[in-house]
From TrEMBL, chain A:
Name by which UniProt lists this protein: SKP1-like protein
Quaternary organization: Part of a SCF (SKP1-cullin-F-box) protein ligase complex.
Domain SKP1 component POZ: 15-73
Pathway: Protein modification; protein ubiquitination
InterPro entries per the UniProt record, alphabetical: SKP1 (IPR016897), SKP1-like (IPR001232), SKP1-like_dim_sf (IPR036296), SKP1/BTB/POZ_sf (IPR011333), Skp1_comp_dimer (IPR016072), Skp1_comp_POZ (IPR016073)
Automatic annotation (TrEMBL), chain B:
Protein name per the record: F-box domain-containing protein
CDD domains: F-box_AtFBW1-like
Residues of the F-box domain: 1-45
SUPFAM superfamilies for the chain: F-box domain
Length: 167, 363
């Protein structure tokens, strides 16, 4: 599958690159959008190759990142519009989707998207129980029951809150 | 999931979390505990808050009780949220609050004063600090706290002492001699700082406010950098303001030092701002208040832009904000249904109102 980015047909002046996700889908992206990612920029500077293969970003996540990069590379959009796009971009997204997105922004080094996604994740996490966090991040509790009780005792106030959610 | 052990990514997420969540998440696993407790994360979080200031909130205390309430802005019509301290405030009195740390003193003053206490309401950590007793420099006139996480993770306590009495006349004269002693949490020691200085006997050294690496009292300040005492410029009221009953105080908000003068007869409030080079107090806002029962001024909230700036007002049973730009008041809280409400009383006071923020700094 070859997808053109939202800027319409490519002209001869506008260079573009093809980015392939780990599940094999290919995306045609303008170079101006690709270079917003620090790691793609480096790859493009180092080699002539117009095909970049990303072995750890899936098709769904990559499509979202590219939509983001294309919007931010569009000179026709005002900063205000881009800001509201950012808001829209993360609103309503599942925590699971955000996790893959934040990892992708780390691989591709897209700082501003990383900020936006991290903020949204924090927003979802802030009133959650520790158990919820462990589940979502797939973390094993490595405290002994005694150590856990001791920490809970020291910071008891942080738990005396009935507004915490587990879903 | 790889994020769980990627400190860089976790840091990016943690930066947006409030202190309370962070402290809870120390329990997730040992790695999270050490990241959240690290000096690296503390520094990053401090810098982060310089760029993305958290929403302003106030802590309102009911004098003579241990009740404190957390007041958030831009949420109207909500109830006052009680703020629970983990240490009994019935025995303590708040001397100052500075960027997330409290300086407390026992309510029944011992003579001579032997110790004070630093308390971080976010981490609930506290530490008792002994004062120099048998000090050759006499009575403690006031203690103030200086803490700016953007400058240093350590805090200082500024103690003003009435300098050694030379003759009984000292206590009667209008000008008195003082000496400053500074406690540094890094070295955990007290040191005399600067020379003795003379100041009018009326300066309330127990009401110092931290601003720009100095402690500011009415009319004078102590610069921590150079250990020097300086004088504030004169406050010049506009020509049309004659004598009036004044209720006034200093309030710091968002990096600005204000002198707020409430003229009771005229029902008008003037807010002066001290220029950062100390050259003059500039009249920044002037507000005419109308109200049947009268209104008191609790505090001022400043923000990034003018539209965020507001005066926080109080009338019996209510707390309001007056936005300077919109030139209109709006009710934030109506607490007339609360058990503690008393009719016709100004239950909250500016001296018990603090610009609240949380910090992870150690006490």
């Amino acid at each position: 599958m070859v997808t053109t980015d939202e800027k319409g047909p490519l002209t001869a002046k506008k260079k573009s690159v093809i980015i392939r996700s780990c599940d094999g889908d290919e995306f045609l992206v303008s170079e101006s959008a690709a270079v917003l990612s620090t790691s793609l920029k480096k790859i493009l500077e180092e080699k002539e190759d117009r095909l970049i293969h990303l072995s750890d970003i899936d098709n769904k996540t990559l499509a979202m990142v590219i939509a983001y990069l294309s919007t931010h590379a569009d000179d026709g959009l005002s900063d205000d519009l881009k800001r509201s796009f950012d808001q829209e971009f993360v609103s309503g997204k599942e925590f699971d989707v955000l996790k893959y997105l934040v990892l992708a922004t780390d691989t591709l080094q897209v700082t501003c998207l990383c900020y936006t996604v991290a903020k949204k994740m924090a927003d979802i996490m802030k009133n959650k129980l520790v158990e919820w966090v462990r589940r979502e991040f797939d973390i094993q509790n490595d405290y002994t029951p005694e150590a856990e009780a001791e920490i809970r005792r020291l910071d008891a106030w942080a738990w005396d809150d009935r507004q915490l959610e587990d879903d | 999931m790889i994020i769980a052990h990627n400190d860089d990514l976790l840091t990016e997420i943690f930066l947006w979390l409030p202190a309370k969540s962070l402290i809870r998440f120390k329990l997730v696993c040992k790695q999270w505990f050490s990241l959240i407790s690290s000096q690296y994360f503390f520094n990053r979080r401090t810098l982060h808050h310089r760029r993305y200031k958290p929403e302003p909130t106030l802590l309102l205390g009911l004098p003579e009780t241990s009740y404190y309430f957390h007041l958030k802005f831009r949420k109207y019509g909500e109830k006052l949220v009680p703020y629970n301290f983990s240490i009994p405030l019935t025995e303590q009195t708040i001397l100052s609050f500075c960027n997330g740390l409290f300086l407390l003193q026992r309510r029944n003053v011992e003579n001579p004063l032997k110790h004070c206490q630093i308390y971080n309401p976010a981490t609930k950590q506290s530490r008792k600090i002994l004062l120099n007793i048998n000090h050759r420099n006499g009575t403690v006139m006031g203690l103030s706290l200086a803490f700016d996480p953007l400058k240093s993770p350590h805090y200082k306590i500024i103690c003003v002492r009435g300098a050694r009495r030379r003759s009984p006349a000292f206590w009667q004269s209008w000008w008195r001699c003082f000496q400053i002693e500074v406690y540094d949490s890094e070295t955990r020691t007290w040191k005399l700082s600067g020379k003795t200085f003379r100041a009018p006997a009326g300066v309330r050294f127990n009401q110092g406010i931290y601003w720009k690496n100095g402690i500011h009292w009415r009319g004078i300040f102590f610069d921590l950098q150079d250990s020097l005492i300086g004088k504030h410029p004169e406050i010049v009221f506009p020509g049309d303001t004659g004598r009036d009953y004044l209720y006034d105080n200093y309030v710091e908000s968002y990096g600005y030092l204000h002198y707020i003068a409430h003229m009771l007869k005229r029902k008008s409030v003037m807010v002066f701002e001290l220029e950062s080079d100390y050259s003059q107090w500039t009249l920044k806002y002037r507000v005419d208040l109308n109200g049947d029962f009268g209104i008191s001024v609790l505090s001022i909230i400043r923000g990034e832009s003018e539209e965020d700036s507001a005066l926080v007002l109080h009338e019996p049973g209510k707390v309001m904000e007056y936005k300077f730009e919109e030139m209109s008041g709006k009710e934030i809280i109506d607490f007339r249904e609360e058990a503690f409400y008393e009719e016709h009383c100004f239950q909250f006071e500016s001296n018990f109102t603090f610009q609240f923020i949380e910090t992870l700094a150690p006490a």
